Amino acid sequence: NAGVTQTPKFRILKIGQSMTLQCTQDMNHNYMYWYRQDPGMGLKLIYYSVGAGITDKGEVPNGYNVSRSTTEDFPLRLELAAPSQTSVYFCASQAGGRGGELFFGEGSRLTVL
Amino acid sequence: EDQVTQSPEALRLQEGESSSLNCSYTVSGLRGLFWYRQDPGKGPEFLFTLYSAGEEKEKERLKATLTKKESFLHITAPKPEDSATYLCAVQVNTGGFKTIFGAGTRLFVKA
């Protein structure tokens, strides 16, 4: 069972470069999330989606963009990377409705130099 | 503004020394409160969901409780393998639902 798959696992970017973190889930979940986690900290919500074609901002959306063209995929786009975006990024999916468990990917570690 | 606060930031216990972790929340419409465990270099793993004040759930040495303003994760007779970061999260009703996390409590259990 694949669950939630994130790519790449590791990436080093130069300041000003752009990239896309990919996230795919095979559980037919409606809800998907992108979080970032800085060292020793909890997870901060960047963007989330409640279904294909619908996205909304979380707590820390600046410098990021998302799209949700299919139920399975929820890519996160970083434009003009900055050192403040150095972090571990987690994608998660949720069946939806009240109290549903979040299923997480293994994370993508991004360093901006 | 929806907010989740966990305390303490870190907790060091001896094996067998029971204790509790706290999660206090201020949200506009609580749909559920979650506890997750996170090991270093891994994504969070689901432990419990609590829905209403007075509810309790147990799993091995862990017991989660919920009041109208906070939740506790009680750890009874912990073992070194319980060492991890424990994250509290709340699902809030914003028209859709979103899930926001606290900063976590890092638990260290020494043999």
Structural commentary:
The complex is a heterodimer of chains A (113) and B (111). Chain A is an all-beta fold and 113 residues long. Helices cover 0% and strands 50% of the residues of chain A. In chain A, strands 2, 4, 5, 6, 9, 10 and 11 form a 7-stranded mixed β-sheet that branches. Chain A has a 4-stranded antiparallel β-sheet with strand order 1-3-8-7, with no helix packed on it. In chain A, strand 5 and strand 6 form a beta hairpin. Chain A is globular and about 40 Å long. The mean pLDDT of chain A is 93. Chain B contains no helices and 11 strands. In chain B, a hairpin with a 6-residue loop joins strand 4 and strand 5. Chain B is globular and about 45 Å long. Chain B is mostly beta strands and 111 residues long. Classes of the chains: A mainly beta (113), B mainly beta (111).
Task: Indicate the topology.
The complex is a heterodimer of chains A (113) and B (111).
Chain A: E1 4-7, E2 10-13, E3 19-25, E4 31-37, E5 43-51, E6 54-57, E7 64-66, E8 76-78, E9 87-94, E10 102-104, E11 108-112
Parallel strand pairs in A: 2-11
Antiparallel strand pairs in A: 1-3, 3-8, 4-5, 4-9, 5-6, 7-8, 9-10, 9-11
Chain B: E1 3-7, E2 10-14, E3 19-26, E4 30-38, E5 45-50, E6 56-59, E7 62-66, E8 70-75, E9 84-93, E10 97-101, E11 105-110
Parallel strand pairs in B: 2-11
Antiparallel strand pairs in B: 1-3, 3-8, 4-5, 4-9, 6-7, 7-8, 9-10, 9-11
